[in-house]
Amino acid sequence: MMKNKNNKLRVLMPLVVMVLAGTMLSCEKDYIEEPSDTTGVTDELIFSSRENVQTFVNGILANYKGQYRGNPDEGGLYAMYFARAVKGNDIIQDVNWYRFDYGHENREPNFRRTNFTWDFNYENINFANTLIFGVSNSDGLSEEEKREFTAKGKFFRGFHLFELALEFAPNYNNDRSLERIPIYTTPTSLETVGGNPPEPMSEVYGQIIQDLEDAVADLPDSRLGKSFINKAVAQAVLARVYSVTQDDWQRVSDLARSAYGGNANQAVQSINWGSGFSDMQDQEWLWAMFQNGSDETNFFWGHAAPMFDHLTLSYNASYIDPEFAAEFTSTDVRNTFIDIYGVSATTPWREFVSTKYAFTFASDIPIIRKSEMVLFDAEAQYHLGNIPEARNLLFALQSARDPNATITTNSGQALLNEILLERKKEFYGEFGPQWFDAKRYNLPITRNDIHRISIDVPADSNLLFLKIPEDEMDLNDNYAGFNNI
Predict the structure, then answer these.
(1) Is residue 408 part of a domain?
(2) What's the confidence (pLDDT) of residue 10?
(3) For the SusD-like N-terminal domain, which residue ranges apply (predicted)?
(4) Which residue of 211, 381, 427, 448 has the smallest Cβ count within 10 Å?
């Protein structure tokens, strides 16, 4: 990963030059300062006080909603998540941005999806390692502050290593000895030569879990706002990780319950459905990216809203598969599907658009919501054999979205299928739950002929992960002879 080249640097330079400005807060929403290159700022200064270290953390979070490269589908975290969202069978993407993700044509080693995903995540891992290293050597922080900021660094490192493991490797449980991606736990710089070797996936997930368990132990419950991380956010991400490894369903349940607060009926209550799905102050949103339309916005880049909203001037590029729309009752608030073009006879895939998102430059972007944790709890109870509790947790969400919902009588595989379907219905357009679930359960993604591209993805297909980038293969000698399937 880390080696100089002539024009484009594969190296991830530590974030040691940033504007040292305090975090601006409004009474309702939080602002994150973008990092900038301020010549003369040293590591010693950055890590000399709590305020300066927090500014460093703010810069990492600002990277999540940045305009990372020159294309709208190479933005921040939202770009990676929306790319996953269009890989399922619920969304139909027009010939626009993300069309190659929709067509599963995006995995080659020199494609921008592959390069962006690798660079974005390893860059943030390097920022995390710089944070951990800088905090550990600081003379200006108390021991309590060092624990807190080290926990934040470990959260970022574990979070992004998990995203890399999802994107660049097949199902973890198919072959835990498979070697595809490297682990970095120390900072790298422009002077770093070479790269670390790819490690067995068991080692990769061991590092992910250790980092996130440490973060859960040491992160505070409090935070500056929902754009920032705290213990509950770390618990939610770790629940995602254990849902992939499937080693400890009781741990999934415990983490999910802690993250959503323990009261499922209360946790799933939301004001966003039918209101544009853009307000991070909704109690149901756990972690989000804030926008205010002026100094805190990425304009047309904050997907999914600019893609989904056909009632506002934007990309107007995402449509809904009619079979997916038919899964919703007429009284379900998530049934946001309308026919505004009247072209179903000539262009069937353009029949339905969704009004889930009302796009403005001030539309907040969800990362994790409590409802996901409630469904993880239901899934965990299913695997633990607590079928009545699994049904009750599932019904907590279903009844909050549809006043006419009735509690399921399903059991066995049918109950698990219903939980996974509910994930699709609750999170369409957000983080790609069908793609995520297809990977961890070895499920196919099957599209009907209405889709603009009706490609089917078989279970355990190579289409469910990306190839290692060409630059990495060329510059990291540890990949010599690597089978880049």
Answers:
(1) yes
(2) 29
(3) 31-242
(4) 448
